[in-house]
Design a protein that fits this description.
Order of helices and strands: EHEEHEHHEEHHEHEHEEH
Largest sheet: 6 strands, mixed
Low-confidence stretches: none
Radius of gyration: 18 Å
Number of helices: 9
Number of strands: 10
Strand order of the largest sheet: 4-7-8-1-9-10
Helix content: 25-40%
Distance between the termini: 16 Å
Strand content: 15-25%
Shape: globular
Length: 228
């Protein structure tokens, strides 16, 4: 699926990945965090070689992923905000093998306040929430694991313009605090406006790396169809 994909991610930057459907963008994120097996190649984190056999290994290495399909891969829709925020970092709430429900709810309330999640009730069921607020819950779940690298796949798909702006603000604040982000998006203006650099893919290969200030939709599309 992926062929000779090689790049680096710098601290405190948003690195975009552009390309047409089927170019291999999502597969890059899944390979990095261990959701898909890497048959060849090396992933290094701060210079150290890593071997992620599952997303659990990636999370242990302080990485997080906001998947493309938030309803089927990012959330447990029948569960509330408390459950969804805490599920990836339960060890924070455990003591002597017991789960501290008070601390779990406190963490959820802090993210509700920080991200302006609506409804603001920690026990609100996520399937009843808007797409934008569901996405904020997925982000909160990732950040609760104290990740230093965040992989986001189509972060604003299916959400309204107001929620998009809030998501952009959250991501920008995270990189200002030193986090590194890899963003996959089908919306070229989104990549141009948000990213420091943009990788362009076609048929599983990287066909170009473009600085945001030099990027245009026409240039990105030309690289995205290079092998077409």
């Amino acid at each position: 699926v992926l062929k000779n994909v090689s790049f680096n991610l710098r601290k405190g930057e948003i690195l975009g990945i552009a390309g047409l459907a089927g170019a291999g963008r999502t597969e890059v994120l899944r390979a990095i965090i261990g959701a898909d097996k890497v048959e060849e190649g090396v992933i290094r984190l701060e210079g150290k070689k890593q071997c992620f056999r599952s997303p659990k290994d990636g999370i242990k290495a302080e990485m997080g992923i906001v998947p493309e399909e938030r309803k089927t891969q990012g959330l447990l829709l029948k569960q509330n905000i408390i459950y969804n925020v805490g599920i990836a970092g339960l060890k924070k709430f455990k003591k002597y093998g017991l789960l501290n429900k008070r601390l779990e709810e406190k963490a959820a309330r802090s993210y509700i306040k920080l991200f302006h999640i609506r409804p603001s009730m920690p026990k609100a069921i996520t399937k009843n929430m808007s797409g934008g607020n569901q996405q904020k819950v997925v982000l909160a779940k990732c950040l609760h694991t104290d990740c230093k690298i965040l992989l986001v796949d189509e972060p604003t798909r299916g959400i309204d313009i107001g929620a998009k702006q809030e998501i952009y603000q959250i991501l920008n604040e995270l990189v200002e605090e030193g986090m590194s982000i890899i963003m996959v998006s089908s919306e070229l203006p989104e990549l141009i406006g948000m990213c420091n650099r943009i990788l362009v893919m076609c048929e599983g290969r990287i066909t170009g790396t473009i600085k945001a200030e030099e990027a245009s939709e026409e240039l990105l599309l030309s690289y995205a169809t290079r092998f077409a």
